[in-house]
């Protein structure tokens, strides 16, 4: 085995952890931006005074369609297009949730904290996503974040319940999408047009 092959093997072993950490950071940033849009929409009273329920339903339908289309055609998009799609999904989600469930902002902040803590955990300990430790840490850190944040803002019982359920569901989704995230990591070596930020952004869109 030549020195270049050895370096390549070492890179392949390291990149999944690096990419997963960056993916979690992108996901956390998207969740916090969504929470910000929910807050801005609620405080501006825009939906209450200007938007009819049927418009919100159309926005929700557009969100589902955009999300499905993005996932099925994700590998065809460049970084700029994927970023624009990510921003569109964040905006539509924030606007629709502001009308449907005002406690969504708190929940998205909690889940964002969960992903950011896991990004730090994986990056500094260089833990592969193939292990169960990151997923266990994700669920535990998310529940702790839910307890702390909900206690600080004096959330209602419904927000407490939904936030804990959301943490568990998102942890399950992350576990189920593990192979997809590994596939994006392999794109770094199979395509000359793929970069770490691009593949991490694809992972964030998937989550």
TrEMBL record:
Nucleus keyword on record: no
Record carries keyword Membrane: yes
Transmembrane residue ranges: 21-43, 55-74, 81-101, 107-127, 134-152, 158-176
Pfam families (alphabetical): Bax1-I
InterPro entries for this protein: Bax_inhibitor_1-related (IPR006214)
GO CC entries: membrane
Membrane topology: Multi-pass membrane protein
Domain of life: Bacteria
Keyword entries, A-Z: Membrane, Transmembrane, Transmembrane helix
Compartments reported by the entry: Membrane
The name this protein goes by in its record: Integral membrane protein
Source organism of this protein record: Salmonella typhimurium
